[in-house]
Amino acid sequence: MIEFKDYCFYYNKKKPLFSGFNFKLPKGKIYGLFGENGSGKTTLLNAISGLNFPKEGEILVNNYSPSDRLPSFLNDVFMVPDTLELPKIKKASFLAIYAAYYPNFSLTDFESYLKAFSIAEIEKPYRASFGQQKKFMLAFAFACNTGFVILDEPTNGLDIPSKNQFRKIIASLMNDERTIIISTHQSRDLEQVIDHVLVINDKKLLVNEGVFDITEKIAFNFYNSKPEYIDDVLLCEETIGGYKVIEKNIEGIHTELDIEMLVTACFSNPDAIINVLNK
Predict the structure, then answer these.
(1) Which candidate in 96, 123, 176, 229 could, as Cys together with 28 as Cys, close a disulfide (CB 3.0–4.6 Å)?
(2) Cα dist from 56 to 22, 74, 268, whole Å
(3) What is the pLDDT of residues 127-162, one digit of tens each?
(4) Which domain holds residue 94?
(5) Exposed, middle or buried: residue 62 (CB in 10 Å: 0-12, 13-18, 19+)?
(6) Which of 132, 137, 52 is closest to 94 using CA atoms?
(7) pTM surpassing 0.90?
(8) What gap in Å lies between CA 241 and CA 69, rounded to an integer?
(9) Are 149 and 29 in contact (CB under 8 A)?
């Protein structure tokens, strides 16, 4: 369980990024975190990981306060940041230094993930391309077998086959005791693995809903012509060959979630989205 209680954080005291922020994230889910640039996504990930501390309020992760940075907390959390700067050491040295911090680290899993990402022969990861470095760190993160895996733009820099492998690995990792939080702008890379959506808008958590609950209340449809009715339409976008539409799910038929459309609607028509999801 991750819980934010009256959380407040700022870089400039006169312009708090979050104030009185409250929400809970039960364990055993894959969360997708979305929002505009500068909305505070990375700040929240860092807070959960113990890399920044609340100015006011409290954060609890499995009843630990991340700011205490206790070893028993840190060895069960792994965060892969958007930007990487790997130490200038060989793979063997990297493992000797860093794997020791994670009691559930599996060398067998690590080598398996490297093979899946087609970088099994990498010996000097710091000399590799950005994409290969990202795959190396993802493989290490997954092999640590921590209860909390925090990923900031994990598919940034990955080629198409690697994105496919990433999705397969994420799906295979999940169980009732593990929590994965993914912050990304590459929503289409992750639509098939995320089971809970978080959207930050205007310093608030506008959406905190499971995928099933969203598609129970909202329908994502495509029409050849623009819908004439407007009362039930939350977003309508013209595209090649017709119109992509988000509308109230009047017929009760579950459609496939379009995260990009949902997030767009959260910023263009937030009140309507809240009204529908809160019913």
Answers:
(1) 176
(2) 12, 22, 31
(3) 999 999 999 999 999 999 999 999 999 999 899 999
(4) 2-194
(5) middle
(6) 137
(7) yes
(8) 54
(9) no
